[in-house]
Amino acid sequence: MTLxxxxxxxxxxxxxxxxxxxxxxxxxxxxxxxxxxxxxxxxAMLQAMIRLRQAPKRRLRMTDLADDMAYSxxxxxxxxxxxxxxxxxxxxxxxxxxxxxxxxxxxxxxxxLALALPNYLAALDSLLTSRLSPEQLDxxxxxxxxxxxxxxxxxxxxxxxxxxx
Length: 165
Hints:
The chain is mostly helical. The chain is built from six helices and five strands.
C-alpha cells in the first residue's frame, strides 16, 4: 500500500512503516488470542502471569508490575482484578510495607500458566520465527530493538504533538 505519490526511494515512508507494524501486530495478536482462548486468558493476563512467575520471589508490587508492563496504576488494578476473579492471582499486603500490595500466582495460576505457555510459545513460533531465516530474525530483532529504543522516551504533548519525555 503506497500512501504518497512521491518518487520511490529506498527509505520507507513513516506511514508505510506504521501500517506494516500495525498489520504485523494485528496478525500476531489474533494468533495469540486464538492460542489463549481455551484457557480464558488475554495476552495481557498471560504477560502479567509470566512476570509474576519470573519475579525473584514469584510476586511483585502492583506498582512495579504496572511499570514493567507499561500500564497505568488503574489499568494494572483492573487486569489483576480479573486474574483474582479467575482464582489465578492473589493480592496481599507487602511484608516490608503494609501500605503496598503485591500480586502473586495461586497454585491454580501456576497450573494454568504451565498449560497455556507452551501453546503461546508455539503460536509465536508459528507466526514469527518459523517464517523467517535466522539472518532475517537477527535483522528484524535488531531493527525492532532500535525502533523501540528510539521511541521509548517519547510521549504525546498537549495538542497531540510528540515530545521527548
